[in-house]
Amino acid sequence: MTVPTTAPVRPRLALAGSIAGAMIVALDGSVLLVAQPSLQRDLSAPLAQVQWTSTAYLLAVASLLVLAGRLGDRYGHTRLLLIGSLGFGAASAGIAVAPSVGWVIGLRAVQGVFGALLQPATLALLRQVYPPDRLGLPIALRTSAIGVAAAAGPLLGGFLVAQLGWRSVFVVNVPIALLIGLFCLAARVPEDAGRNTSRRLEAGGALLLAAALALLVNALAGVEPHGWADHRTVGGLLCSAAVAAVLVRHERRSRHPLVPAAVARSVPVTASMVMLLFTASGMFGALFAGTYFLQYALGLDPLDSALRALPMTALMIVGAPLAGRVLRVLGARSTALGGTLLVVLGIVGLAGTDRGTGPVAMGAAFALLGAGYATVMVTATGTVVGDAPPGYAGVVGGLKQTAVNIGPVLGIAVAAGLLPAAGDGRVEQWEGAMGTALLVLAATAALALVPAALLPGARRRAGPPAGAGRRRPDASASCLTSPSEV
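^ thats the sequence. predicted structure below, dont judge the formating
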């Protein structure tokens, strides 16, 4: 399908497609958690297979994101977003009529493949249609939309499952996917915009990266049921490290590496990836520990637990646009450091909660988490998209999404290894274990301060040239010196 190129580009429709693409992924993940118990009963599936409905998707997405971004750089991000969204919708329709859990798992993996195609494209598309000094607001709106989708997911999923059954949560993806396709066509982004056809793709690096990430995610996902010391966990981590070492050797010798040298040498891009990895680990590990504590130790139902954490979502939605303004004034370094500190303080605040902690104090800790994570996301996304070398917006978008996907798996693995089994132990044991787990997760999030300090600072205005006082200032001049300061 050909994207029109004769008419002027429509940035707002491109932004709508980017936001819708990000939201469909966030909605799909959050509503599935609500639908899984009903799915298990309807298909008479064991719990281990039900867990694979999430793991299969995550393995496919995490292992293919960088390759998908590279394909977008070569063949066009609008085309990849169109293919990814329509394939995602088709796989969702297949899951809605799946006769067994085996079909659900297989189609979830297919859904993950198309999800990997569309995710980097949602970021790269913004780079194509917005100049660097106007990227801040679109990125903030995209981050807020993800927060809305994550908050609405459990409520929407609960309503659909109660009224129409678990299959309905996948049917919802179909019209959204078609809408994304319409936005892609109507935005009229030229197919050759931002494309980089100067270097061919090598299958060797892509396969090695996919294998290393798949082994890593599978090993981390197994920590919760098996533990860190289990031979399956240790073996998976060692195999992942071995494949990663082979990948590094291959990339150094390759004439056409999967991650180009211009990207690998970019300090702002690399620092943003590492910052996102550690921040997401602490954030989602804390959510995992807090949810288990509220439901298993305090006996709250899922709705009450969600209400306790609602300030986090509210601050993510409101905080993202504010973070974009702060980023423009203070620069990436100060904004990222402030956001990371808020995340750490929020996790430490949760570590101090117990049975006597009221909803206000706990809500304040969750609010710090939401405000901090929104700030980090806006800063890292703006830096990654803005500082991407020309022609490589897709590959850096894929790297960014990889960090966002692997970070939560790592954080949950850390939390799961330090918490009692669900339903085991007294409340006092849960309080002590949760406090320890959250302090470890706070330390993990604090590691993000190091890469945050490597991001670009705010631009310092030079003194006016001689005679400037006799001229009117140029109101159209940009106050930014680099895209990272968006």
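Confidence is low (pLDDT under 50) at residues 1-6, 461-486.
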